[in-house]
Each structure stands twice: as structure tokens, then as C-alpha cells.
Amino acid sequence: MKISLSALIVSLTFVCAQSPFFDQEEKLDQTLKKFQVTGKMEQIGRTGVPAMHAVLLNEKSILIIDKAEENEAKLDSGVSAYSTLYDTETNEYRTLLLETNTFCSAGGFLGNGTFISTGGAESRSKWKAGRGHQSIRHFKPCSDSSCFWQEFPTGKMYSNRWYPTVEQLPDGDLIIIGGSNAGTKYNTVAKNTPSYEFWPPRTDEPIQLDLLLHTLPYNLYPFVFLLPDGNLFIFASTKSIIYDYNNHTVVKELPRMPGVPRSYPLTGGAVMLPLRPENNYNVEILICGGSASPKATSEADDTCGKINLGHDKPTWEMDTFIHKRVMPDGVFGSDGSIIWVNGCQRGYAGYKDANHDPTFDPLIYHPEKPIGSRWQQGLANTDIARMYHSVALTLPDGRIWIAGSNSVDPPDIHAHYPTEYRVEYYSPPYLFKSNTRPKISHVPRIVTYDTQFNILLHLQETEKDMDKIQVAMLRPGFSTHSMHMSQRYVFLLFEVSEDFQAITINSPPNPNIFPPGQAFLIVLYDGVPCKAAEFFIEKEEKDLKI
Ligand SMILES: *[C@@H]1O[C@H](CO)[C@@H](O)[C@H](O)[C@H]1NC(C)=O
Ligand SMILES: *[C@@H]1O[C@H](CO)[C@@H](O)[C@H](O)[C@H]1NC(C)=O
Q1: How far is the CA of 245 from the centre of ligand 1 (A)?
Q2: According to its UniProt record, what is one Pfam family this protein matches (predicted)?
Q3: ω into residue 265 within 30 of 0, thus cis?
Q4: Looking at ligand 2, which residue's alpha carbon is closest to its atom 8?
Q5: Residue of 57, 109, 112, 544 with the most ligand 2 atoms within 8 Å of its CB, for mutation
Q6: Is residue 191 domain-shared with residue 335, that is, in the same domain?
Q7: Last residue of a domain, which of 403, 431, 459?
């Protein structure tokens, strides 16, 4: 029998159309195309306690810290828990016992790997929580279920610090800056703690920081970034300085940022943009959102300002923030973009009907693009209001972990804007750009400064363009109150082997570029990130104690 070609095509088409998989494949293709543009938002898992604070401990565990209050998660004793350890693989949590009240505290990692939680609030006997204003709490990360909180009666801060900021320092210790000595809606002369101290202690008493005298009443949770020259950038309200914390002197006063105050409770968000060796680690700081006054009717701010500290006379370049947004969370995408989630369009950071009109849409900011085309919009949104006491963290797999929102006191899952225990994962468009992701292996556990190290690279046969490869290291930081303390993204110099199977990477030249401790190594091919691998950057290998 002779069959014409066109008849064959018709019959083949018919066969395809009849295939039980045909519809599914078509749908899969359309869904994939959509995700390539919008990314994907998924709700999986519960945190047990409201995620007021969160920090990534290793490749899969997130330490969640709330304040002493009545929560879903209970300890074996039946008393409500206020800390849990969340597993991003199983989406389950384990309750953890804390001894002092962690309400509006801060935290960071020491160079030896121990996580330190600092400060908090008054005792609450119902939850067996002692006074936490001066607390230093230790948590040594583990990869099994053996780790727990440790508090020592003798190790405390000098001052009461509610709403302080912690930044990790090049010596592997912490600086703890500002706060108030008691609970307050906004800071006052009587409650101000206008000073800083170190952990472990470096001085015999706290050191006064004048900036915090001149920025009342909106100076809580100041924005602080360690700069590659070893100084700190410190911002409160609308003012900022470059500060030498070794000699306790102001190096430079920067111009006032235009617009509304940006610090708690008129909370905006701040990110130090990715550092690059090609421009000698030039620093640009981006600050977005905020609110004009601590009133429920106050419209949130819809501007961002960026300052280039490399200029002789730095100025604020103003840009849109697309939406009005107070309490935004700005975190790094694995590709070095900045992903903004959470927050709302009206009100301020506080309890009792203080926040309204949640912002459901993520936004992505591409710092390398020219002004006017930096914002990526139209992304997959959420329908969960995440306002006061929400958090976000970048995960090693490139997704963003989003949790929290608790603007009612006591917690209430039936309130108009309920206490949120639900977790969401946002998978940005870069996770759908290609069918395959680059893979890395043989990443050393400890890397020292100013050295070279080798890893193995696994790419597809067709991926042979050197110019499409980038290498970077990420520290997701400590998330609370729109703060992402010690968050950092640094590109690294590298050389790829001729067969594309190995990379020799230059570690950061010194600890001012990336202070000691936990880091995640990322290799990108054409903007698609690998699953990041945890490693530790240290002055000496023996410094790591976990
Ligand atoms: C700051 O202190 C360091 C030592 O802590 C010292 O080496 C340096 O010279 C001082 N710089 C200034 C500008 O005083
Ligand atoms: C890390 O250093 C701190 C401060 O010296 C110390 O208290 C802590 O026990 C150390 N952690 C480990 C695991 O040795």
C-alpha cells in the first residue's frame, strides 16, 4: 500500500492528538513559560511559632525565634514554645526551649560558627521566660536533631537593647548597635540606648554613638553594613555616616536621604548591593520604602534611594519603589538580584491595627541595569498578608523562604490580618530559565582568605561559553523587622579549566570583604544558579569550632 506523505503527517498528527500525554505536555509547556516570567509562589508547611526572627543555620535548617507568647507549638511540658527549628526538606519543625524573652531582638554568627541572639524584653512568667533585655543566647548549629539553645548567667550585654542591630565583623565577633532600654512605640530620649558594644566584649563599657542622639525618635534597628575599607555604614531615620568602630570616630557624614524616615517604626529596607572585584568592591547602598508617621492612616512611601560610597561627594539617586511599601523585605536572589517581598501600603510597624493594605506582589531589582529598567514586575503573588513581624530568607537552592506576620497581640489566627504560621516559597524566574542547572561538587568545608581553591563543575555538553559563567558567595543574614543583618553577596574571581570540569576560585582577599563564618558558594551559567554549597570562610582553618 502506498501512503502519501501528507496522509502520513495527518495520521501522525492524529496519533499525537490522541496521545494521553499530549494535553499534559502542552499544559506543562504553558505552565513552564508562565513560571519563566512570573516565578512561582507555593504555600507549604507551618512554623509553629510566628517567625518574628529567622536565620538559616545550614543547607536545610532555619532557626525561628518569636517572643514569649501563646503559640501553636508547645514544648513537651505543655508550655507554649517561642522558638522552633524548621527543616526545609521535610517542612516540619522541632520546638526549642528558650530561657529569656527574645521579643524584638537581633543576632549574628561568630567566626567560630556559633549563632548569637542578642537582647529582647521583659520577663513573662506564663511562658517561663526570664528578662531578655541584656541576653546573649548561644546556638551551635548541627545537622541532626541534637542542637539546642544555651544561655549563660554571666554572659550579658552591658546595656538593655530592644530593637538593636547586629553586624558581623572582620575579627569574627559582633558589634551590637543602638536600641531602646524598654518597650516603646518609637524611641524617646528617656528610652534611647545611643551606644554600641561588642560580643565578645572588647571595651569596658558601651561606646556612645552620637548619630543615635540626633535621629530620635526614628532610630531603632539602624541599617548597618561592614564596608570593604573596614569602616561601617550606619543609617538611622534619614541620616547616615561612615564610622570607624576601632577608633570610635566618624569618618564622613553623608547627605540626608530625601523623603520620609526609613527606620523603625517607619520601617523601610536596606541592601548593600553585590560587591565585585572588577570595580575594587565599590559600595552602593539601596534603601527603599518607609512611612511618614507612626499613624495607621499614614501612606507608605514608594521611593528608593541609592548612594554610591565610591564617589568623593556621594549623593542619593532617587528611584521608584513601584508600590507604596512599609516593612518590605529585600533579600538577594541567588543571581545577585534583589527580591522584595512582604510589607503593606498604609500604617507603620506596630501592633493594634497599625498596618493595612498588604502588598502581595514580589518585585525584583536588577542593580546592573540602567535606572528606569531595573524593576521586574508582574511576578507570581501571594494572597497572604505579611506585615508586622514577617521575614524572608534566601535558600541555598535559590528559592526565597517567606514566613511570619503577627500584628495582633496575643496571636490570633482568626483576626482580620491573622497571626501567620504558614510558610511560602517563592521560586524566582531564574529557576525556570533552563531545563538544567549547573552543578558543583567537592567544595571545601573551610576556605581561608586570599587563597585559591578548586571545585568540580558539571555543565551540559552544550554549555561551553566562558563568558556566561559567574561565581559568587552569599550570606543570607539574620531576618527580622525588614532587617537582614550581615546579609552579603560578593562576586569572586575564578578560572575555568579548558574542559569545563573544574573551577579555580579566588577567595575574598580579606575579611572586610566578607567577614568570617558561614557562606554559600554559587556558580551561575547564563544567569541560572546552581544549588549553593555551604562552606566557611575563616582566617585560619582552626577558627571554625562546629
Ligand atoms: C585606628 O585604629 C587603628 C588600630 O585600632 C590604628 O592602626 C589606626 O591608625 C587608627 N586610625 C586612625 C585614623 O586613627
Ligand atoms: C565561639 O566563641 C564564643 C566566644 O568566644 C564562645 O562563647 C563559644 O563557646 C564558641 N563556640 C564554640 C563552638 O566553641
Answers
A1: 10
A2: Glyoxal_oxid_N
A3: yes
A4: 114
A5: 112
A6: yes
A7: 431
Contact between 283 and 338 under an 8 Å Cβ cutoff? The reply is no
In a domain, 1, yes or no: no
CB distance 247 to ligand 1 below 6 Å: yes
Checking if the pLDDT of 521 tops 60, the result is yes
CB 352 within 8 A of CB 415: no
| pLDDT score of 18 | 52
Residues 406 and 457 placed together within one structural domain of the fold: no
Band the pLDDT of 1: cuts 50, 70, 90: very low
Domain boundary among 431, 460, 487: 431
Q: How many domains does the chain have?
A: 2
pLDDT tens digits along 267-296 = 999 999 999 999 999 999 999 999 999 999
545 lines ligand 2 (CB under 6 A): yes
**Distance (Å) from CA 403 to ligand 1 centroid:** 42
Q: Which domain holds residue 461?
A: 434-543
What is the pTM assigned to this prediction? Answer: 0.94
| Mean pLDDT of all residues belonging to the chain | 95
Closest residue by Cα to atom 2, ligand 2, is 112
- What's the CATH code of the domain at 130? 2.130.10.80
> Domain containing 447 — which CATH number?
2.60.40.10
